[in-house]
From TrEMBL:
It comes from Rhizobium bangladeshense. The keyword Iron-sulfur does not apply. This is Serine hydrolase family protein. Pfam families: Ser_hydrolase. It comes from the Bacteria. Transmembrane segments: none annotated. One of its GO terms (molecular function) is hydrolase activity. The lineage of its organism: Bacteria, Pseudomonadati, Pseudomonadota, Alphaproteobacteria, Hyphomicrobiales. Keywords: Hydrolase.
Length: 193
């Protein structure tokens, strides 16, 4: 069984957040802890994630908000080969996030490279941190399947998401897709007649 690395966003995922429930409910999961949840710095956060992936060998990522952008930063990095798939829930748009939290975030530009691992991006129609148009754009840029779950806000405690069982089902779908992809890559090509 592959490990699941939980990637919270700005301020971490506090008590009652669906990621905290995930850690309790899923014995194969662990949180990638950051030194400073309130003042995220991309290089420091990325260093922690890369170390966690090296320790795990291979893992699935379950990210929320700024954690989604952290996962997307793995594109083009050698450690990305260790990611079996990523569930990216309510990614934030950096310009909006920086405007809402001035001077707190040092995360550079929005990552735009295609992700080299299977991914599902989950968002909503009324997320204050990313418009639905931008959600669709980054889903395409990251080469991820995009799921809009309607009027769900930022898919956090404030929008009514405590224990989020649909998230478990989405990860299972991602694991199935990742397994199918691995089988198709390892099968020899058919010979033409």
């Amino acid at each position: 069984m592959k490990e699941v690395l939980i990637l919270p966003g700005l301020f971490g995922s506090g008590e009652g957040h669906w990621q905290q429930h995930w850690l309790q409910d899923q014995p194969d999961s662990r949180c990638v802890i950051q030194d400073d949840w309130d003042h995220p710095h991309v290089d420091k956060w990325l260093f922690r994630l890369e170390n966690a992936l090296e320790e795990a060998g291979e893992a699935y990522l379950v990210a929320h908000s700024l954690g989604c952008l952290l996962a997307a930063r793995l594109a083009g990095r050698s450690v990305a080969r260790r990611v079996k798939g990523a569930l990216l829930v309510a990614p934030c748009d950096l310009p909006i996030t920086e405007a809402l939290h001035p001077g707190q975030i040092s995360f550079g530009d929005m990552p735009t490279a295609p992700l080299p691992f299977p991914s599902i991006v989950v968002g909503s129609m009324n997320d204050a941190y990313m418009s639905v148009d931008r959600l669709a754009l980054f889903g395409r840029l990251w080469n991820a399947e995009t799921r809009n779950i309607g009027l769900a806000g930022h898919i956090n405690i404030a929008s009514g998401f405590g224990r989020w069982r649909n998230g478990y089902r989405l990860l299972e779908a991602l694991k199935t897709r990742s397994g199918a992809r691995k089988r198709s890559v390892s099968m020899p090509p058919a010979f033409a007649m």
